Amino acid sequence: MFTNRIDDHVPIDVSVQKGGPTSASNPVGRGLEVPVDADPTTLIGKLGSFWALPWLEKMQRIAEFYWLLKTQFYYRLFWGHIGKRSKLIQPMRLRNVHNICIGDNVLINKHSFLYTWRPDHSENPRLVIGDGCVIGHMNHIACIREVRIGKNVLTADRVYISDHSHGFADTGIPIMKQPTVSKGKVTIGDGTWIGENVVVLSCNIGKNCVVGANAVLLNDIPDYSVAVGAPARVIRRWNSVSRNWEKIGANDEGQ
Q: How confident is the model over 7-19, as a mean pLDDT?
């Protein structure tokens, strides 16, 4: 027996006897038989779990399934590579996606802006997002040389990652009309977490790092570090001997 609550005050019994009819007291689930001991990993179990969800969450699941199908059977025709079970949900803008490769089980949330561009006759740019990454809402990732995001990286909302910026050397020309300038590629190590509103510009972030909200990264961050601020600085490092995240001073950042 399980109980499906439409709200906090009106419980509705939707008990189902295995092999019998659904309860007449369930006006929504009438006609759907789900054994109470169904394995949640089976199709019957998954259908039962889905049916037990509130209506709004059902609609969200259906929408996500639509974007999964669109990613796997439509976007895949144009991208450099899209791995198994990866999905891109309602992107805001995509440009030159033939230079973009994403691995397996990647989730790119709503309103992302993914962009590659070759400003001259150099090699084609390459944007890579590794297996298991979760990219937050409204992330803007731009690439003219190379941006490589490792496996199982988590980014929060409104993160900007780029290997270039606008040039401004000539004060007689509007900045928007000056050529783009790249100071180097971007790499983000496996398992790193990047907080909200972070900016990453032409630098390397190590493995299993934590980047605090609103940080601006202009320089490399070593493995197993916590970085905050604008410009960002390392405030903690993982000590494999003591097995603790230890605070560091300004004089220790380069060590």
A: 41
Residues 99 and 126 grouped into a single domain:
yes
Instruction: Verify that 45 and 107 share a domain, yes or no.
Output: no
Rounded CA Rg of the chain: 24
Number of independent structural domains in the chain: 2
Calculate mean pLDDT across residues 218-226.
97
Greatest Cα pair distance, the chain, in angstroms, is 81
- Per-residue pLDDT at 126: 96
The answer to whether 28 and 58 are in contact (CB under 8 A) is no
Q: Are residues 37 and 148 in the same domain?
A: no
Q: Which residue shows structure tokens 């040389």?
A: 145
Instruction: From residue 5, give the alpha-carbon distance in Å to each of 8, 23, 217.
Output: 7, 15, 47
User: In what helix (H) or strand (E) does residue 64 lie, and over which residues does it extend?
Assistant: helix 55-73
Q: How far apart are CA 207 and CA 199, in angstroms?
A: 18
d(CA 23, CA 25): 5
* Predicted structure pTM score: 0.80
Name the more confident of 184 and 46. Answer: 184
CA distances from 96 to 110, 117, 125, 145, 251 (A): 19, 7, 10, 13, 43
Domain that holds residue 33: 22-52
43 and 169 inside one domain:
no
Q: Can you give the pLDDT at residue 1?
A: 40
Mean per-residue pLDDT for 50-67?
Answer: 90
